[in-house]
Amino acid sequence: MGSLMHLIPVTDPADPRLAAYTSIREKDLTSGHGGRFIVEGKVTLETLLTRSRFAVESLFLAESRLAPLADLLAKVPADVPVYTAPQDIMDQVAGFPMHRGVLACGLKGDIPLPGEFISEDKPRSGPLLLLSDISNHDNTGACFRNAAAFGAGGLLLDERCCDPLYRKAIRVSSGASLFLPYAHGGTGLDMVNAVLNAGYTVWAMTPRAEAQPMQSLPVPDKLAILLGAEGPGLPDALIAAAEPVRIPMSAGFDSINVATAGAIALAHVFGEKQG
Amino acid sequence: MGSLMHLIPVTDPADPRLAAYTSIREKDLTSGHGGRFIVEGKVTLETLLTRSRFAVESLFLAESRLAPLADLLAKVPADVPVYTAPQDIMDQVAGFPMHRGVLACGLKGDIPLPGEFISEDKPRSGPLLLLSDISNHDNTGACFRNAAAFGAGGLLLDERCCDPLYRKAIRVSSGASLFLPYAHGGTGLDMVNAVLNAGYTVWAMTPRAEAQPMQSLPVPDKLAILLGAEGPGLPDALIAAAEPVRIPMSAGFDSINVATAGAIALAHVFGEKQG
């Protein structure tokens, strides 16, 4: 164990220094004051410590996890407190059994709006993934995971999307929401227009019959892939602003999960660019 | 409401005729005696009544759902009892709030083994999806949903896979596990060998570098796509028996969900066959 690590044993589940970790199942930390988020488990902690865009505020570990995680903990900055407690105290703080025994709290900082993100003078390789009205944490997390797997340059989320830094979204993203650049806020149409104005082609993914089959289209150099809510799909106004594109599917059952649709489009584009 | 429907009001949550519906959250009906499964929600009930492979044993509906579902309920066979109860009685039976107010119980019957399935003298269009050691209900359900969306001819599951007729697997499948033909049981190697012996090419999906990129391969007429457990991936013996195939991914993050990997492979094959 590095001697620099700032280890703080805690014995009282009501210790105010653990406030960020209390009752984390129900709590919505990210939208409250302070803009904190919770990371759980070893893999995501490793992402937070090694390739995250965000600052780490503290760690909270079950005592039994200190030895097995020694190598990883050597990467914790010396000024970041590492609270430790017996498993039962940790469970009481979290409000449910925290079997993994690994929690950390990050600081969200400022997340740009899609228009700000696009106008940044940064070269971005890979397509952008645009999400409109994706309010399910699993779907948001899966979209980030898939975007990372297929080399997307970033994600834009409109105001109707849930926060990709929700605990469950981070977990489902396999940590991708901690390192992939993203923007969040404003209307779907503002988002699409910002991307169009920056010279992107926007593929509005929709099962509608009048949409072009994805495989029939050349893949533009600057491509944005737009996904909408799973039930209703993208609203007409967003489809009309973009290029309607469909994934060919079986006639009797044209229903796939929205994150899966995004993965199929991203994988197709990635494969075309490699080929 | 069709006058033929066999409507049975129930007022006692302990009524033995509702035994199949008690405490359904925890219960594993499918592997027990009797081989029943539970369907919940309108969309899945419609699948059960209109395109399922399975017999319906009974329905259990909140009273308030009778009128809105009248058209669908007209399709219930006259000899199938339809139990109805006030919402609070239904909640007590199910063991948790059954907001949708729609449950049905189906009979599983005999599910063939993969070897039996393959030796059936039936023409099957579309690729087969082979699952080895997929024990997560969400992943199993998603695999069925994706298989239906991309015209798979059926699914083979080895003995280490969970039952696709678990309540949650059916729901996540959007009902596809009720109508897609499938087989379940035996070892992964028996499953792969049965398919190879029947003249199929088996693509073992793996991120390993030595695997061929999917897009570089011709799509065989008789194709089986083999997926393994998400964490460890396919065991060496199954990869060695088949053709290792990979989905090209970003070098720094080659991790996608197993059902998503299956969807990408199925969508690619479907697109090639359409094109």
Automatic annotation (TrEMBL), chains A, B:
Domain tRNA/rRNA methyltransferase SpoU type residues, every copy: 129-266
Protein keywords: Methyltransferase, Transferase
Molecular function as annotated in GO: RNA binding; RNA methyltransferase activity
Keyword Transcription regulation: no
CDD domains named among the record's database cross-references: SpoU-like_rRNA-MTase
Signal peptide positions (record): none
InterPro entries (alphabetical): Alpha/beta_knot_MTases (IPR029028), Ribosomal_eL30-like_sf (IPR029064), rRNA_Methyltransferase (IPR051259), SpoU_MeTrfase (IPR001537), tRNA_m1G_MTases_N (IPR029026)
Pfam family, one: SpoU_methylase
Gene Ontology biological process terms, A to Z: methylation; RNA processing
Protein name per its UniProtKB record: RNA methyltransferase
Species for this entry: Hyphomonas jannaschiana VP2
